[in-house]
Amino acid sequence: MRSGPPASVLFLSVACALVALILVRPDVGGAMPPFAKATGQACSHCHISPFGGGPLTPSGEAFREALQSATPPVDPLLLVTPGQRILHAAAYLIHILFGVGWVGIFLYLFLPAALRHRDFPSPPRGYLRQMWYGAAVVIVAGPFLAYMKVLFIPGLLTSRFGLLLVLKILAVLCLLATTVFITWYIVPYAGRRYRQLSKEIDGGRPVELTTGDLSLFTGRGKRKALAAADGVIYDLTGRNLWRHGIHPGGHHAGQDLSDSFRDAPHGPDVLERVPRAGRLLGGRGEKSNVTRWYYRAIYLGTAACLVILAVVALWRL
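-> structure tokens emitted (317 positions)
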């Protein structure tokens, strides 16, 4: 039984919420940073909001009417056609929706697991697909949006906006690198390691596992369910109270449950009826090199996500 809604449902919920926010916000007056640059006025000169966007002031209405009937010497780059606006808005919406899904995997799944020192070297395929859907859309839509910005804003790269854009692009590339590392190194390694250890367990050989190895045996899908207590690893596969790797009370297979077993309502004698699969190396503090690199990738990807969010926030200042 699932412990929570699937990733697709969570992603769809976030996407619907973002669409709703965009649809109910006030109509944008079509403001662009070059308007302020060309007129020498602050955004609040033409917009009621000091941050720009939204309803226009009387001065803004007059400026918009002037643009609609503009002839040289007004800079033609300030004139944005309706088709360009629609195309830019559609690309921006798709960029945001899938970007949220990509960034959300790191901020709401990988990072909390790492902070709780829970090894998670083999993410479910649904999360991997969500990451790559987001990455693919951002990689395709991002350059298009950057091109539109360069087209609309002369001298973009020398402006504050342009410098922040370059910083965001670097952060996206860093996030892409960590996604590639997790997908093409960590996940294949975890699959090979699981098959190797599972074969040893089926052969009746006691195994010695690190906490990273143990976390591969979650009981989800067709995987075995293992758990450790006081340095001993127990095979919980196929037991009624451990279906899908979850025990009543919220305990999960693939973890060191020493503290949980001590606080359980039943005595330690219940473990005597469970087959032993081996022992846990070095207790809960022992981690493999792959697990350490996995943590580093998570922290690097999370830092890139925070830089991206900071850039978006600074654009509004």
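The beta strands are 207-209, 226-229, 232-235, 246-247, 251-252, 276-280.
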